[in-house]
Amino acid sequence: AQLQLLQSAKLATLGELAAFIAHEINNPLTSVLGYASLILSEVDATDPRRADLEVIEKEALRARAIVRDLLGYARQADSFMGPTYINVALEAVLPLVRQRADGQHVQISTRFEPDLPAIMGDNNQLKQIFINLLNNAIDAMPDGGLIEIQTRTVSPNGAGSQVEIAFQDTGVGIQPEQLPKIFDPFFTTKKAGQGTGLGLPISKRIVERHGGSINVRSTPGQGTRFTINLPVTTS
Fold this sequence. Notes:
It contains five helices and seven strands, in the order ααβαββαββαββ. It is α+β, with helices and mostly antiparallel strands. It folds into two domains: 2-74, Orthogonal Bundle (Helix Hairpins); 82-231, 2-Layer Sandwich (Heat Shock Protein 90), CATH 3.30.565.
């Protein structure tokens, strides 16, 4: 319990820091992007300076994505809870990642339990988690592979019904020494410039605000399985 309290305090402090940094960076970053786009619109395609300007714009866009993730990590209270049907949310998310998956020869298969009960949740935040996990799985399979998504109702230890959502991939897997760190803010297994290290911490915080849990199992060279459990609404 004490360890969990310390972790919560650590996350709260990091959230405040993230919000401050994001706020301080966002305004000048908007100016950089605006001027870069303006100059690019006035520079001819054959101008030797154009390549440098495109690098400036690209890196500014990457910085903006980092700021967005920082703000997402910092915000805790902006939740709009209501009865949410997980199967419906997943069906809405799949078209958003399908093109990217097809481009990397990644197949997505689903096994959804019919008539899955509703959970009390924020539909948009849950979709954010699903998109993040699916994109991570696609990234882990640069040479193609398979993602299996399964939903079902479970009653672990007979302690009330939960909706379980599992994402299984056939990717590169996660090294055992890295597994305990993957939910730490700013930790990432991706190459420099390809990830902020905030996607999974944000997902974990959202799941916990829904009264649920998220767990991971992984075997290097075989794949990774993320499992989310959310309590079924009783109202």
